[in-house]
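re: ur question from earlier - yeah i can do the single chain one, its not a big deal. heres the input i used so u can compare w yours
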Amino acid sequence: QVRLVESGGGLVQAGNSLRLSCTASGLTFSAYNMAWFRQAPGKEREFVAAITRFDYNRNTNYADSVKGRFTISRDNAKNTLYLQMNSLNFEDTAEYYCAAGLPQSKYNYWGQGTQVTVSS
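and the output i got, formated as tokens:
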């Protein structure tokens, strides 16, 4: 059974940082592309960042709204995905989800989410 478990969310003041983690089990983590999505109250879920599966050619991609502030990374030895979030602002308040997908496929495994709340 595939499980993705997010952690690291919380309440933080604007301008500060948080690091989210997503620990995977039940799948060959290194074979999957991984991503972070988020959903704010009353809004649709949106893409945040993604990282490809290969250790030697690890490509990343970011939403324009987080580019330069957020960094996605992974540790295949620990089956863990990270999202370092710096310079947080109120608009970053959302439930953050990690997702896994094989190349050329949609993200078909999702975590339960971790809440990030940024106070102004």
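The mean pLDDT is 95. not sure if urs matches, ping me
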